[in-house]
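Work Package 3 (structural annotation) set out to generate three-dimensional models for the target panel prioritized at the project kickoff. During this period the team completed the workflow that converts sequence records into discrete structure tokens, so that structures can be stored uniformly alongside our sequence database. As a representative example, we reproduce one entry of 375 residues exactly as it appears in the project archive.
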Amino acid sequence: MNKKVLVVSTTGGPIALYAALLGAGISQATGQIPIVAVPKSFKRQWGELPSHPVAPARMEYLDFDSRAGKAVSLLSLLRLAWVEKVDVVHDVGGSISRMSVPLWALLSLFAKVFITEHEPFPQTVQERPLDMMTRRVADRVADGIFVHGSASYQRLLERGCPLHKAHISRHGVFDVYGESLDAPSIGPPTVLVFGKMRPNKGIERLPDIVRQTRALLSDVRFCIAGSREIGGSVSRVRAWSQRLNVVIDDLRSLPQVTVEDRFIPEAEVRGLFSRATIVLLPYLSASESGVLAIAAGLGVPSVVTDVGDISETVRRNQLGLVVPGDADSIAAAIASIVQRPEMSAGFRRSAIQYARGEGNWTRVAETCIEAYQAA
């Protein structure tokens, strides 16, 4: 490829990790070293990860974390793109961040702009007029928009994105937490529910799911781990926190349920997944999931609800079971995997193949590069 690429994430966490791994994939696929611009807060997260890509990108850390630093960092990003004479800017944060709108418009004056939309299925908080405007600007300004599967692709077209700009680029595996686990942990079966406790994650279903699962598997254990960070107004955050308190109190009253209501450092992630027999994603809505990307990278089978592109990824790569959202169906799927070791082993083998194939970052990068070249 004869194009210089700048990959951008103005938000930290899993989106910044996606940017870093995509940059590494581009480096591996082309032999060229792209630039990856991410928030300063990601530098510590990146350093704490157990492993790193063999062909890393050039990392640039900007102050997107503080309100005061955002405007200055956007200008620094524009200057970086101009000075480095980049041909392609790929913003992997998509329309999640409204601060990207002026960035896309200015960058499009001298570079091709590509966007990865992780949430073409907007949550309620993302249906405000300014958020709707952000998505319309993305559809108009971008030279290409990537989504992770056919459901999101259809939604992208329905919202008005031109057909020639829409592309499917699968979500890569988060393979930075060490080698794939060879076998489930020894001891009672454990179900892990991991990640930020947001309203769309189905957290309020969990007490019923636990009760129904224990009716089938008396020795099953549940671990719910993650922070309760959500966006939106103060009143919305307060209301969700109150609802969540009720759910967590109910869960803690149940036997063999552990709730880690806190931010989980990178150093603890592998340990949580290594003790899990199954990773449960009981989502109400979503497109793709960083939690699924970790589970697949470590070879832990998943049970997911039939939403967004998550179900497509699990089905087409045989990473676990896809079920309706009711507690009975979820409990039956958990019991099925626990009681059939050969099924669990098959899902683990499939996850290894997925990490080497469709979920490999070089493969993901090649899909993006093809779109860059055609624009």
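The longest strand covers residues 221-226.
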